[in-house]
Amino acid sequence: MLGERIRTLRKQKKMTLEALAGDRLTKGMLSQIENNKARPSMESLEYIAGRLGVDISELLEKVSIVELRKVLEEAEKIHEEFRIYFKHSEETIEQCSKLTALIEPYISNLNESYESARLLEIYSRSLFCLNKKEWALYCDKAALIYDSLNLTANRANIAFFRGINFYLEHRYQDALQCYLEERHHIETTHIKIDPMTKVTMDYHIAALYSAIGDIKATSEAVESALEYSRKEKLYYKIDDIYKLATVVALLVGDEEKFHYYLKKLKQYGEFVEDKIFEELCDVIYVEYLLHVKGEYHQAMPIIDQYLTFDENTQKGSGDNWNMLQKGKAMYYVKVYKEALDILRTIYIPKHINHPVDQAIYYTKDIFIALCYKELNNIDKAREHAKIAYDCYLPLPDSIFKTLCNETYKNICLS
Q1: What is the pTM of this model?
Q2: Which single residue of 51, 76, 90, 111 has CA 20 to 30 Å from 43?
Q3: SS3 label, residue 316
């Protein structure tokens, strides 16, 4: 209520009743106002607001900006670990339920402030992950406020979120079209786009072009992001850009670009002194050795350094991608039963949505089919060749899709 808002603001300003009352109000009258026993006139309210250094509208609001900031601070803590790609996970659903319960009581009382826009954005994302159709309404409201306040980075996050709606349904062309329209809106209505936001938008556009198999447009977006980053001396998202460019070059068999971007990714890893990039570069290089160069024996020791060997079971274990590579390498060195045992343990991560990532993981069923063929189990070979074929059918062309089609033809159509 009004009295509580005045008291809260007064205490935050570390003012006594006497100091706030000044020479226009009595201490007793102000005390009655704070206890909601008296209603001030508009003239008195303007005076109190002036003494507190706030706009009169803040005193008249049903929810004060101070209260909104507290709610937002709590919401941000919950939202900090939020991962929209894991929208079906129990953890995400629990987070979203907490967020909607926290924010919902304030929705009807939000204003045109940043705090309101951010709460609307978080509320919208939470509803989206809970499969509530109203998410778009609150997303639109947040976008309008960000536009009016010229908060470009926040507005760009809304653009990305709108595209995610299509992306997670594997409607990549629609996601790209949505994001291009959103980017055009931002570029034509906002005063200036900060460097980090521009690079982020270039990266997302490159990722979406690669999702539909438009390699020329992907390369142009990648080069645009890299050229701008060099100009601005900005390293933001450089690792993601190099990683995307490297894997796309691998998938289309462009060896020159593959080696160029892989080298850049390695150099970035050395620059930031993060060993995770060393492993990332190794696993990407292993895919190149297996599928482009056919140097299986050279790939094996690189794979093995990331696996743990159990002396009792005489078996290796490790990361899902590393084990997938181990299974493929074992097939190529003609250890079919052992390869099959490994490949059957591989799972497709639920959060894998990009065709580039899908193309890598879908090789699992190609090699299961090939192993079964070598072990003379033709029925099982056909079953997995068909699974792989159906998985690759909607994906853009790649060296993996070519291998899949050849495997399907040799096993199912011969």
Answers
A1: 0.82
A2: 111
A3: strand
